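Listing 4. Sequential folding, example run.
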Amino acid sequence: MNVLLDTCAMIWCVSEPEKLSAQASAALQAPDTRIYVSAISCAEVACLSDAGKIAVVPHWRTWFNNALSDNGWSVVDIDLETVAEAFSLPGNFHRDPADCFITATARLNRMVVLTADRKILDYPHVQSLW
């Protein structure tokens, strides 16, 4: 299974793994799971850190890069197709740009979004789990 971490799930994996659900932990530890992070999560970590909403040590940029390398996670870049998909998602989806990019990335790459966000979990046009 290809799993795309939303930003909160990524942060919890690194800093507070006890916040992950049992199902999320099991999916992440399954031998056939490949884990990905959207490039937009880098921006979210930076904004949250700079606003004092999360504390990451060392600097957020180093923290983010270490999280990727320490866990063997791959980054999915944001390209024109992803931007177009993010702003033309079918049905009713909320307008948080980061969630739109994460959802679009998962849809285009046939990934399952690992998230605790009810808005993504309840969105019928993307696979998700928590």
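-- end of first protein; second protein begins --
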Amino acid sequence: MTQPAGHHLAELNVGRLLAPTDDPRVAEFMAALDRVNGLGKRMPGFVWMMEGSGEPGTGNTDAKIGGDPQYVSNLTVWESVETLEAFVWNTVHRAFYERRQEWFQVLGKMHFVMWWVPAGHRPTLDEALARLEHLRMHGSSDQAFGWKYLKDAQLWKTHSCAQVAAE
């Protein structure tokens, strides 16, 4: 699939921390949130990020999913596939992604989804979770998709996690 004219790429990534956000087992991850999110916001092609409480070191961890304080989410919008890929795979974000098993449970189901949004649209967490559920139920389509569905996506092929988790 190629990018529709006048649209940006939205993405949601969810995970369940191995421990509460104030636990030493996830301290290194929590301490890096502001740095990694700040870098993302300065990247060419960054459009928008769902913000948490604004408290230092909390990232978006206060946006709970299903009331579970250990479920955390990241919801962003990017100008294009290439700009999102550059951030995910060509910055310090990659080092934290590669170490995710140190801080996050293996969910055993899709935890990442992308979809096109009209330029200027800011998706809600509920909207994003509905897209993720659509992907889980129906597989990749124009409504919700993973990296594999995008013809312009290339970097994920050498850096992504197992197929079951990040199609």
